[in-house]
Model the fold of this input.
Amino acid sequence: MTRLFPDKILRNVMAKMCGTSDIGRENMLQMLDDYEKKELCHLMYLGFAGFIPEIHDLNIPCPICLVVGENDKTGKVKKYNELWHKNKRIPLYIVKGASHNANVDKPNEVNQIIENFIGNCK
Done:
């Protein structure tokens, strides 16, 4: 399906989906710039194909926290984070006003979440 979109439109849509800020969108466009359209479409296919088996139980033996942008609409990322939080009682931090690349949209908030998490693990 992604091959049907003109290259520039596809990249702009991806950037808008992954970033709410101008900096976040520009950062995504820069990351996408290294790929030809055919390669980009293939990478998107692989990314979505990874979700086909759907969510399954994982045993992660170290402390974890989940960070997701409030406006993340990339695949099922936000839904999966919410389910992990609910079912496994893993701390979930929702970054207001951020999208998929929350660390670029709101770097100070994400850094503070990470610093607090690491500080609580000691």
